[in-house]
Amino acid sequence: MRSGLFGEITTSLGDKEWPQDVGLYRSLEEQEILVDKAKCYVVKAFLYIHNVLNQTREYRRINARDMCVKKDTLPFLQVLNTIVGEDDFLYFLNQKDLDLDCNLPVEKILFINGLISIIKTKLIPIELYALWMVGANKKKTLDCYGFGHPEPLKKMLCYQKCKEVEQFLKIAGYFNKSKAQVITELSKILDLFAKKLEKNKYISGNEISNADVFIYGHIQAILESKLDDNFLLETLKNFPILEKFCISFSHNNLGNQSLLGSIFEDCA
Which residues form the Mitochondrial outer membrane transport complex Sam37/metaxin N-terminal domain (predicted)? Predict the structure, then answer.
């Protein structure tokens, strides 16, 4: 059982049918930084693949970050009276029998879960490092994060977020690394993904998995990023197979549809 803002993720949400009036909440476009976009691409790709994106209304809210109990869980779904944060999303899909990995052998599931863990414990910290720890990028990150908030609230929110990111990076082991060391770590991660995709359509063979969706979301966000010091994109250029993977993934699974917006989007 997992808790949410308005209720709990229990077997009551485990009904196999997709609920009515599901809302996908995210920040305003001007507030979204690279990590936010990557996570949103992951969630929306899952919804599209499972043919429920068109049953989900998308809302952009300036206070979306404050609508979840747990921070950094954007985007989130509002399902009935329950909030399903980004970190609970796979669990929620599993309750709906919408798990891409459910029929895979145990050893492949362990491998796929390991790749997702690498994204969450290594790639996301590297993305945050690029946004918050690199001087050339930090001002733009602060402007995005604090968009729409008056002073001195904007300054206070940005200060709190900086401290949160610093603490997170310390725990993840990236706070004291140099940019060169971070680039080396990033290259190792991208090389791992690239080698697995050299002879396979997907990361574990010919069948799409949860890990493929996560890889797509984060690589696509990096490809679209416009950082002043964009070592993420420059490093990614050394692995052209990953860009080809994103193109192929979009063509085969998303109908080449852009996940930037939605015909159901509501920015009120």
Answer: 46-159
